Amino acid sequence: MDQDKDTTTSKAETQDEILLAALKLFVDQGYFNTSLTDIAQTAGIQSTSALYQYFISKQTIAAKLYGSILDSLNISVDDIRRRNQKPSEQLRGIVDLLFKLTDEAPEIMQFLLLVKIKDILPEQKPLLETAPFVKIIKIIQTGIKAGEIRNLDPVLVFSHFFGIINHTLVLVLNGALDKKADAYQSQTWLAAWHTIAKK
């Protein structure tokens, strides 16, 4: 029984190593320039055939990686919503999270912001239809009803607000801004919030 548990743990750990290796390679050299052999070598797996015990294709790896990132983001958005009452506070919590991830887990943010997911995973839902982003749109709708946010189409509000946030983070990730994301967080929040706040 314990041996089965160890095997399951070992398999899960190996899958995580494969996903981390794939994330690094997809971000560094691009999805289409990354082979299964590259992923196997980076993950410390002896051969591509051994990789098939865990994932049947490169696209399966990308789908699992993308799903894992969205699941983590979804859990974080739920936590932020629980801890903060006002929509403005919830949006601030989400912005804080994105800036923290940019500094602490830049490859995850590069995967989310720079990789064209539709090219890799054409069957995936559009980003705004995934669970964490549906919840963010709901936060915006609540903010509009509460009179905190201007009465515009919620998707337009999302676009204005996160356009500023995401553009700043991309500038940090590609080195156009030379400090850590944290250095730009307050001014970026103010710029983004002023575009949607009800005056």
Structural notes for this entry:
The chain is an all-alpha fold. It folds into 2 domains: 1-56, Orthogonal Bundle (Arc Repressor Mutant, subunit A), CATH 1.10.10.60; 65-196, Tetracycline Repressor, domain 2. The chain contains 10 helices and no strands. The chain has helices spanning 2-29, 36-43, 48-51, 58-83, 87-104, 106-114, 117-120, 131-145, 154-173, 185-196. The longest helix is centred in the N-terminal third of the chain and has 28 residues, at 2-29. It is elongated, with a radius of gyration of 19 Å. The model is unreliable at 1-6 (pLDDT under 50).
Observed structural traits:
10 helices, Arc Repressor Mutant, subunit A, mainly alpha, Tetracycline Repressor, domain 2, 199 residues, 72% helix, disordered N terminus, 2 domains
